[in-house]
Structures are given as structure tokens and as C-alpha cells.
Amino acid sequence: MIEIWLYPACSKCRTAESELKAAGVDYTVRRYLDEPPTVAELEDVLARLGLEPWDIARTADASKLGVTLPAKDAEHRAEWLAAMAAEPRLIQRPILTASDGTTVVGRDPEALSRVIAAD
């Protein structure tokens, strides 16, 4: 089973969901703007991705959202996580997690293939 953090208006999210359907895999949808991830969930996803919060942030959207982002360093990591949990539109999408824990930011065919193959 794959979980996909999805924003229905996002073309990359719609493409990812289409790929899941075409592959015939079971998946669940989490509309992460309606049900924002907690700081703990973000920590878990980042650990599986091997990335830092700023690596999966939509930094270009921050000013449009009225969010001032902190410096990209370990000292400010908790501030990044808090900002992303409070304003989930800052989180890159879609994020997919396979049942084996494989997690990707599914913005390209290669990433989608990895998570589908892992399920």
C-alpha cells in the first residue's frame, strides 16, 4: 500500500495518482492541506528521504504565503519544521511512501517508478 500526500489542483499530484492507478497498486490519499502533517510526521518523512526540511520546501511560495523562512542550517531546523506543519503549502508535493518505507518526492517518472516498484 502506498500513501500519497496530495493536493488535487497540482498537476504533478494528478500525474502521480494516474501512475499509481495505471500500475494497479493500492494506495491511500492524504490531502495534506486538509490534514497537515505533524512535526513528527515530517521528521519521519525527512529521515526516510535523507533530506532536510529546506530540501522539500516550496521556498518560492513562502512570500506569497506570508511566511518568512529561517536560515537553512541545523540551528534553525526546528523552525523549518514548525513552519511547514503550520503552513503545509510550503511542502513540496506529491510525497509518496510505499509499504516498505521507500519514500520519494514524486515529481519525476524515476521517483514514481522507485516507489511503485518498492510496493
Automatic annotation (TrEMBL):
Q: Pfam families from the xrefs?
A: ArsC
Identify the domain of life. Bacteria
The record, for InterPro entries, names: Arsenate_reductase-like, Thioredoxin-like_sf
Q: Which family does it belong to?
A: Belongs to the ArsC family.
PANTHER family per the record? ARSENATE REDUCTASE
Instruction: Please state what the protein is called.
Output: ArsC/Spx/MgsR family protein
This chain's source organism reads: Nocardioides ginsengisoli
